[in-house]
User: Fold this.
Amino acid sequence: MIGKVNLQEQFARFHDYWSPKIVASVNDYDVKLVKVRGEFVWHQHDETDEVFLVTAGQLRIQLQDRDDVVLSPGELLVVPRGVRHRPVAGEETHLVLLESHATVNTGDAQRAGTVGERLD
Assistant:
């Protein structure tokens, strides 16, 4: 089915943090929206790269053994598979993620995570 997705409208539909919402699928990947605030868990994804695109707010991605990367609206970062990282947001920040269908947001961390729920 072909249909456009209005990101602002979709972000307005939920208020929880660190809980990705699936708004579209492309081949074997999901386009997810997530609101974040505070510190997430250190983790890595051994099977896939991870794309972070900031649409509102500011995100700092801490990278193990590397300098932090700060993203502002309109900026994105690809974290390669196997790179340990932790997203941190001092204020509410809106992100678009592109992840394979089975990707759990907590990666290898010993903490419950989510693949994401579909917003329909």
In short: The helical segments are 7-11. The mean pLDDT is 89.
